[in-house]
Amino acid sequence: MSTRLTSATKSQPPRCSSSDRMDAAIQELRRGTRLADLLREQVELIPELERRHAAVANVGEISTAMESSLSLLQSEMEHSSSPEVGAVAMAAPAAYSSDGGTGERNGAVARTRRVRHRRGKHGAELPIKEILTEAPKNDRFHWRKYGEKNILNAEHPRLYYKCGYSDDHKCPAKKYVQQQSNSSPTPVFMVTLINEHTCETLFPDEASSSSISAASHVLDFTKASLSPPVMAAAPGLKKKEEEDSMSAVSMRSYPYDEYLSSSLPTMSPDGDQVKFSPGHGW
DNA sequence: TGTATTTGACCTGA
DNA sequence: TCAGGTCAAATACA
């Protein structure tokens, strides 16, 4: 079954205008929905009741996520998005920084007062996407974690990432990841994207990654859901992972490429992604 | 040794 | 004053 599922990830949407990409993303989401249905049928054949139940539940969540993403994209298409980005603009959850991450890192002394230009509340025009995902995947961008914060009334801390090229290429892309309160056995993460990547530095993994790895990814996606995906994610995690699974996921940056181009089979069964050399790393 | 993460302090808007 | 977002030294790891 895995091979069939993989086909969902094979078609590469054209990368042209944002509307083209959104269109492609919609197509992929539709396809994903159909495949999720297919997967459900297959999963129902699992003899072990417990596993079957869990798998069916997970597939159901996949479908839900697909459908909600789909409707978001569609409504965005209808409401004519901003020309520059194919963002799924949603209600801005909070304040978004407009700090360009220009990386003024020469402050010799720590904690000395620096004039930092940030928090442009007026920056409401910033592209924003929010994605609910339960299955972290690699989006091929290089994210670097730069902060973590406990949020009021939230069970889990919010993790802050910026593009790994924010300094080099002045790429303003950022994302916030927050695990939702665990109402379901499977952790669900709200991923908020801020700004579009200007670095355009995607990892060239699709050329080398085989459909096999894609298949295993898809399969393991289910497996990983049975056991928390967070734990599967972090070979690079060292100390806090055992107690803080949230951080574990975070180290890999949470990917959710649904909106992007869809086919990023980069997470191995262990949750370990493709290794990248420094500077291109993840 | 270089790179990425952790973590507490700092900053800013509400 | 509070809460959220960011910085950057310290630290861990490959």
TrEMBL record:
PROSITE patterns: WRKY (PS50811). Residues 132-200 form the WRKY domain. One of its GO terms (cellular component) is nucleus. It is found in: Nucleus. Its main location: nucleus. Keywords: DNA-binding, Nucleus, Transcription, Transcription regulation. GO terms for molecular function: DNA-binding transcription factor activity; sequence-specific DNA binding. Pfam families: WRKY. Residues 1-22, 262-282 are annotated as: Disordered. This is WRKY domain-containing protein. It comes from Panicum miliaceum (Proso millet).
